[in-house]
Design brief:
Blueprint: E1 11-15, E2 21-24, E3 37-41
């Protein structure tokens, strides 16, 4: 936390049953199929202080 680094950005994606990965924008609409997985990686907080 005290390292002063930037926070990480969030990522949303679909991991398809066949192994394909599809990155999603913030307002994407997609069709899901049995076996597909919706992945949400939330943003990480940044630090404070000197880097």
């Amino acid at each position: 936390a005290a390292g002063g680094e930037d926070g990480a950005v969030g990522v949303n994606r679909i991991e398809r049953a066949d192994g394909a990965r599809e990155a999603l924008g913030s307002t994407a609409e997609v069709q899901m199929a049995a076996g597909d997985v919706f992945v949400i990686e939330t943003p990480g907080g940044g630090g404070y202080g000197k880097a």
